[in-house]
Amino acid sequence: MQAATLIAQIEQYAPKALAWERDPIGIQLGNPNQEIARVMTTLDVRPEVVQEAIDLGVDFIFAHHPMIFKPTRNLDLSNPQNKMYADLIKHDIVVYAAHTNLDAATGGMNDWLAEALKLSGVRPLVANPDGKTGMGRIGELEQPVTVREYADFVRDLFNVQAVRVIANDLERQIKTIAVLGGDGGSEYPLAMQAGADAYVTADFYYHRAHDVLADDFVVIDPDHHMEAIAKEKLVTLVKQWQKDYNWNLIDVIASKINTDPYTYI
Q: Which of 58, 149, 184, 196 could connect to 178 by a Cys-Cys bridge, CB 3.0–4.6 Å?
């Protein structure tokens, strides 16, 4: 099948119109008219992920984070990032990214996170006019738990050594939880206004954390890499499309590379 067939289905599921205006989503590299047979999903497109794709005979990388956030200034192949682009071209690998459009889509990133966080009655945190799509999600736990208990659960869920907790009282009971995958620090006032007891997001800024304490709110930051949950979810999604539309794909696999840039010591 052509890459364009998969791309069209992705864009039906997560319409590009849902993305933030400056988000460089869509095809990142390659020819959409190319025939593809093996798809690999990933959170990030890094040199080690590309090498993994080459080793496994992958010809389409389906990523969450765009490969090129800032334009490259040259194509000096002694630079590992530039060499990665050359390797992709050399091995005829198409790269496609669905980022904030997948975040906002119904059944997308933030719904996956809300499900993993055991939330029910889930609705968009920042809803679009349709009332169904939008950034972030908010919902309720089955039973109240303490901040400490929920932070432990979040740490284990996302398989990180530690989470950053911003709270005046770790023994406070919480039940209504908001979540926004990735960098959602600036949206914490919206989580408060929506009635959340606590907010799960990443990349929380130091001085903003002081504002959270002053507001007597609760934030749990498990690291941006929590979005790696998308790898297996995207595999499931593409396999379902393969079944529904009788696509002639050999395989759909998730990258096994951990692209989290942080080491906790």
A: 196
Residues 146, 233: one domain? no
User: Comparing C-alpha atoms, which of 170, 169, 171, 214 is closest to residue 189?
Assistant: 214
| 265 within a domain of the structure (yes/no) | no
User: Do residue 77 and residue 154 come from a single domain?
Assistant: no
CB 38 within 8 A of CB 53: no
Same-domain pairing of 173 and 118? yes
Phi, psi (rounded to 5 degrees) for 239:
-65, -35
Whether this prediction's pTM lies above 0.90 is answered by: yes
> For the packed helices 47-55 and 80-90, what is the interaxial angle rounded to 10 degrees?
30
How far from 46 is each of 15, 49, 68, 234, 261, CA to CA, in Å? 25, 5, 11, 18, 11
Ligand-binding annotation for 103, yes or no, is yes
Residue 260 forms part of a structural domain: no
Q: Enumerate residues 6+ apart whose C-beta is below 8 A from 144.
A: 173, 174, 175
Q: What is the CATH number of the domain that holds 91?
A: 3.40.1390.30
Q: Tell which residue, 242, 211, 65, 228, has the closest CA to residue 160.
A: 228
On whether 35 is known to bind a ligand per the annotation, the reply is no
Q: Is 227 annotated as a binding residue?
A: yes
Q: Is 207 annotated among the ligand-binding residues?
A: no
Is 225 annotated as belonging to a binding site?
A: no
- Please check whether residue 135 is in contact with residue 104, taking contact to mean a CB–CB distance below 8 angstroms: yes
Mean pLDDT by 10 residues, the chain (265 residues): 97 97 95 97 98 98 93 88 95 98 98 98 97 97 98 96 97 98 96 98 97 98 96 97 91 97 88
